[in-house]
Amino acid sequence: TTPHRLARSIANRLGLNADLVQSEPFETFANRRPARRPQHSWLDISRFVDVFGSDILRPVEAELDAWVGQLLSVPHANS
User: pTM (2 decimals)?
Assistant: First the structure.
C-alpha cells in the first residue's frame, strides 16, 4: 500500500472526509523523510509462513479494521 492509500483508508474508517487527503509525487514525499526509502519494495514472507503458518498474517485492510476498532473502544477524556 502507499502512504496516500493508507491515509485515505484510515479517514474512511473513521468517518472523515478522505477527499481531504491529497496525493503527491513520490519524490516530493521521499525528500521530506529523514532516511531515503525505495519507491517500490516488497517483503518475502515465505519463510515466516513456513514456520508459523499463513493464518497469523492479515491483509492491511483487516489490520486497519482492527486498529480502528481498538481506537474507538478507548474512552476519551472529553467524552
Answer: 0.70
Report the C-alpha gap between 72 and 14 in whole angstroms. 9
Chain centroid offset of residue 2 CA: 8
Tell me which amino acid residue 3 is.
Answer: P
Question: pLDDT tens per residue, the chain (79 residues)?
Answer: 788 999 999 999 999 999 999 999 988 988 888 888 888 888 899 999 999 998 888 888 999 999 999 998 988 756 5
DSSP 11: H
Sole residue written with cell 472523515: 16
Cell, residue 23: 496525493
Q: Between the CA of residue 59 and those of 16, 29, 46, 63, what are the distances in Å?
A: 22, 24, 15, 6
